[in-house]
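question for whoever is on the cluster today: can someone run the full assembly for these? two chains, 228 residues total. i dont have access anymore since they changed the login thing
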Amino acid sequence: QKEVEQNSGPLSVPEGAIASLNCTYSDRVSQSFFWYRQYSGKSPELIMSIYSNGDKEDGRFTAQLNKASQYVSLLIRDSQPSDSATYLCAVYKFSQGGSEKLVFGKGTKLTVNP
Amino acid sequence: DTEVTQTPKHLVMGMTNKKSLKCEQHMGHRAMYWYKQKAKKPPELMFVYSYEKLSINESVPSRFSPECPNSSLLNLHLHALQPEDSALYLCASSHGWTGNNEQYFGPGTRLTVT
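^ ran it for u. tokens below:
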């Protein structure tokens, strides 16, 4: 099982719709989860972090975490063409020696059609 | 302000060259990171510095040599690279080096090895 798995997409939604991005992770002891947005040719930009079960809302973005199911998702409401990007799910994972590192999923490419 | 700066933006170097990538942050963050990102792949961790000390080396070849002169600066020295080392090199920083710390990325240096 891959450490962090995302649907590679591409995911295409019409403007104004809700885009739903999903991510599962393998390490049960992971406690910190992040969503990054990456435009083509640019660096990742942090858009959401979530640490507790439940929902966390920030503007049009809602992150959802279910640690029992090892599942984290990102909802984008009222999707805009400017939301078209690759969305990376990232999870802190404990490695040998007790150190932690951020592990990324392969990303989901989202296209919002006008 | 969550700004991490990187220079140069683009770099072309031959396999016998020696060059350096630079990263700077003025957010008071005590952890800094180097990532490598190939096209259509997620970022992969290379090195972690915490309080100016190397904390993680992800078995990176010795032709990549990191340096942290002070808490605001991070360098990556390059020597005798191979064409397969061509990638986007990303610097990131976070307040601390534990799993609940958000990482902020710089714009990256796009490296081409000829």
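summary bc i know u wont read the tokens: The radius of gyration of chain B is 13 Å. The CA atoms of residues 10 and 110 of chain B lie 5 Å apart.
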